[in-house]
């Protein structure tokens, strides 16, 4: 192989020492452009200046550079580095030996023996032949078939003998060539249809489904004589039909402990009418007691413990008419306490008057009722009592005034000794509290309603 001078002039380098001694300069002489030796080398070597002064093709270095044999001898004897010095070749010798060295230099590129058209430095040839040469011979590790390098690359990803994971993510590795059979027949994730309900499940959950499938026929858990039913209908069967299911007596809540097959219940009810009735009576008594204690609890919760009762008396005219027709008709207020643990009081009114106020006045009274805490209280009762009848505003602007009467109990009065459990006495109060005439003259009655306040005060100071 003949190298062009451009390669040499471009790439030759000389050890410093020698070039100084010989004072040789090969650079001014340049070769005309010649075709690149090959693809690989062209990139580094084709950048030589394109023109030559002589424009003559150069084939032998000696012909052009130094026609003079003496000079040639000197030049050819000069010490140079290998043209692959920069790539790492350490060779250095006389210029005339360079050509021979390049035939063995491991950094020099030579054509691939597989004729893949690559130029490869000798030092990289074995790697090229083993791994990258497109015409190398290579064996597939799975099917052991021999391919060219390119053929193997195309074969990779398609080899039927390569184990790969199932695409349905069942976790199994299967040869690629058997994957379609695996997915159709063995794969745990393949879809299978339940023979009973016709829904589809993955093969590994089908058996679990079979134990809950609503369409699977099962025996009645009570083992009655009915033929197997779809699982989904068993609940309704037990609830509505099953003759063997044990059911409690209808009077269970009343206390009957009987439990038996559903078809026996009727005869139980027939033969136990009397005892069921007696159970119901007992339950009714118990419930009455409960109602009573609830009533007491409610009354306690709604009891007024403030010592002041504002008594709203409605339907004035009809109640007055009734009082006029029934002599001695007394209206009593809800009981109230003077304080949380104090005296229990009750007010009463005679709308048509009582005693000296009869038929002309509204009479008001207060009496002490037997209370919860009487045993702990001081007797006789000595709180001052004030009755106030309020005027009502005509325009909604609030109460305007009223009539008030007060008294402080005298310790000697019977009415205020500790009351017996069955009080019957009239209370103490004002038979002529307010006259009927006054009731109509001033705005005490509005919307057929009056407001009467009764206030008990421990201070004994009479205050309105
Ligand atoms: Zn070399
Ligand atoms: Zn190759
Ligand atoms: Zn293969
Ligand atoms: Zn699978
Ligand atoms: Zn099913
Ligand atoms: Zn049954
Ligand atoms: Zn019963």
From TrEMBL:
<dbReference type="InterPro" id="IPR001293">
    <property type="entry name" value="Znf_TRAF"/>
</dbReference>
<keyword id="KW-0677">Repeat</keyword>
<keyword id="KW-0963">Cytoplasm</keyword>
<dbReference type="GO" id="GO:0005737">
    <property type="term" value="C:cytoplasm"/>
</dbReference>
<keyword id="KW-0863">Zinc-finger</keyword>
<dbReference type="Pfam" id="PF21355">
    <property type="entry name" value="TRAF-mep_MATH"/>
</dbReference>
<dbReference type="InterPro" id="IPR002083">
    <property type="entry name" value="MATH/TRAF_dom"/>
</dbReference>
<dbReference type="GO" id="GO:0005164">
    <property type="term" value="F:tumor necrosis factor receptor binding"/>
</dbReference>
<dbReference type="Pfam" id="PF02176">
    <property type="entry name" value="zf-TRAF"/>
</dbReference>
<keyword id="KW-0479">Metal-binding</keyword>
<dbReference type="GO" id="GO:0043122">
    <property type="term" value="P:regulation of canonical NF-kappaB signal transduction"/>
</dbReference>
<feature type="zinc finger region" description="TRAF-type">
    <location>
        <begin position="100"/>
        <end position="153"/>
    </location>
</feature>
<dbReference type="GO" id="GO:0007165">
    <property type="term" value="P:signal transduction"/>
</dbReference>
<feature type="domain" description="TRAF-type">
    <location>
        <begin position="155"/>
        <end position="206"/>
    </location>
</feature>
<dbReference type="GO" id="GO:0042981">
    <property type="term" value="P:regulation of apoptotic process"/>
</dbReference>
<protein>
    <recommendedName>
        <fullName>TNF receptor-associated factor 4</fullName>
    </recommendedName>
</protein>
<dbReference type="InterPro" id="IPR013083">
    <property type="entry name" value="Znf_RING/FYVE/PHD"/>
</dbReference>
<keyword id="KW-0862">Zinc</keyword>
<dbReference type="GO" id="GO:0008270">
    <property type="term" value="F:zinc ion binding"/>
</dbReference>
<dbReference type="InterPro" id="IPR012227">
    <property type="entry name" value="TNF_rcpt-assoc_TRAF_met"/>
</dbReference>
<feature type="zinc finger region" description="TRAF-type">
    <location>
        <begin position="155"/>
        <end position="206"/>
    </location>
</feature>
<dbReference type="InterPro" id="IPR049342">
    <property type="entry name" value="TRAF1-6_MATH_dom"/>
</dbReference>
<feature type="region of interest" description="Disordered">
    <location>
        <begin position="23"/>
        <end position="58"/>
    </location>
</feature>
<dbReference type="GO" id="GO:0031625">
    <property type="term" value="F:ubiquitin protein ligase binding"/>
</dbReference>
<feature type="domain" description="TRAF-type">
    <location>
        <begin position="100"/>
        <end position="153"/>
    </location>
</feature>
<feature type="domain" description="MATH">
    <location>
        <begin position="306"/>
        <end position="456"/>
    </location>
</feature>
<feature type="domain" description="TRAF-type">
    <location>
        <begin position="209"/>
        <end position="266"/>
    </location>
</feature>
<feature type="zinc finger region" description="TRAF-type">
    <location>
        <begin position="209"/>
        <end position="266"/>
    </location>
</feature>
<dbReference type="InterPro" id="IPR008974">
    <property type="entry name" value="TRAF-like"/>
</dbReference>
